[in-house]
Amino acid sequence: MTPPRTIRNIALIGFMGSGKSSVGHLVAARLGFAFVDTDHLIEARAGSRIAEIFERHGEAWFRALERQVVDELEQRDRCVIATGGGVGANPELLASLKRHALVVCLWMSPDKLWQRVRRQTHRPLLQVPDPPARIRELLAQRQPVYRQADVLLNADNRRLPQMAAQVIKQFRLVARDSLAP
Ligand code: S3P
Fold first, then answer.
1. Which of 13, 39, 52, 62 to mutate to test the pocket of ligand 1 (most atoms within 8 A of CB)?
2. What is the pLDDT of residues 6-30, one digit of tens each?
3. Alpha helix (H) ranges present in the chain?
């Protein structure tokens, strides 16, 4: 039997560039929750940036660290967790998040994602000759898992405060005990 969920955190999943960190910071500030970013936890543990981890150790090593930090988050309380784009695309990591968090997916079209990431260089998976095609391909692969989030938010045209408000509204519906009186 599946144990009951105790939703005490919020996890934001979605593709690279969909705004998980920006929305997460705002939601955390408004709720008085801690803000946690899985990529930052991985970088702190490895002592190097994500791009260097990929370069020196390869993607499989990065994914192993990612799994470790996501598993450890099950112990946390009153956190808003921004995840790296691969976390919400992995069914086991998604299941781990769902044990303690309301999982919200920020949904963005490939064109919008490309507009947002085109001038950034820190994402190894997008350092390819045709990044827009890579975005479409990865998004198509990942979307069946992303769609299993508890809440799907269309982030294409919404402003940050509106998205944060939506996340908080959904969280309040399911997690009364985690909120200060
Ligand atoms: C990845 C997303 C990145 C980072 C790594 C791999 C992915 O995080 O974890 O480059 O597989 O989608 P962001 O989604 O914060 O860019």
1. 39
2. 899 999 999 999 999 999 999 999 9
3. 20-31, 38-46, 50-57, 59-72, 91-100, 110-117, 131-146, 160-174
Q: Domain ranges in the chain?
A: 9-168
Are 102 and 80 a contacting pair, CB within 8 Å? no
Residues 96-108 have pLDDT tens digits of 999 999 999 999 9
Provide CATH code, domain 9-168.
3.40.50.300
Whole-model pTM: value is 0.95
At residue 122, the 3 state secondary structure works out as coil
Residue 162 CA to its chain's centroid (Å): 18
Q: Which residues are registered as beta bridge partners of 169?
A: none
Task: Kindly give the number of the ligand 1 atom that is closest to the alpha carbon of 117.
Answer: 16
Q: 50-57 vs 38-46: helix axis angle to the nearest 10?
A: 60
In whole angstroms, give the CA distance from residue 127 to residue 34: 32
Ligand 1 mean position, distance from CA 176 (Å):
31
Which residues line ligand 1 at a C-beta cut-off of 6 Å?
A: 16, 39, 50, 84-86, 123-125
